[in-house]
Amino acid sequence: MTVSIRISLLAAAAVAAPAVAATAVPGVQMAEAQQARPAQQAPKSISKADFTKGIDSRFAALDTNHDGVLTRDEVAAAQAKALQQAQAVEQQRIEAEFKKLDTNKDNQLSLAEFKAAAPSVKASETPEQMLAKLDANKDGKVSASEYRAPPMANFDRLDANHDGVVTAQEMQAARSR
After folding, report:
1. Which residue from 44, 91, 124, 153 lies 20 to 30 Å from 137 (Cα-Cα)?
2. What's the pLDDT tens digit per position in 37-60?
3. How would you write the chain as a 3-class SS string?
């Protein structure tokens, strides 16, 4: 898994969500997956004055010589520090994951340990559930027309022009709905 770090002074200072920006290393915005808030934590209201205060605080942290401007060296130093912190966090995550997989604690992963950690693959429905969904006339069997009906209904839904052809544009429009 690659962890990406993006330098975006404007995004971190002016656009980033206040809760994220307040906890991020000043001037460095982590990849979206790392900066996302937990699902249970709802966004909070913030006044423009408080938002501006947060931006100014992050700028002050970047402006290490306090001369009121950011130099390449100051930005590079913040980037290096953020990269080092992100690498340390990622290293800890990887080591914890390895320890979880290494069930016999020999600091090696055997094929058996690796396979044991793989998610199981199983059917999402029983055969009875599948038949019940497809068997429109409830005779306990699925005819070719009953089997064809759900995918054809989906095709017809995608075919916005009702011309018998689903274009790339119609597929794209369906994805964006």
Report:
1. 124
2. 555 678 888 999 999 999 999 999
3. CCCCEEECHHHHHHHCCHHHHHHCCCCEEECHHHHCCCCCCCCCCCCHHHHHHHHHHHHHHHCCCCCCCCCHHHHHHHHHHHHHHHHHHHHHHHHHHHHHHCCCCCCCCCHHHHHHHCCCCCCCCCHHHHHHHHCCCCCCCCCHHHHHHHHHHHHHHHCCCCCCCCCHHHHHHHHCC
Amino acid symbol at 71? T
Alpha-helical segments (H) within 102-167: 111-117, 127-134, 144-158
β-pairing, 5-7 vs 28-30, is antiparallel
> How confident is residue 120, by pLDDT bands cut at 50, 70 and 90?
confident
**Residue 7: pLDDT over 90:** no
DSSP code of residue 7: E
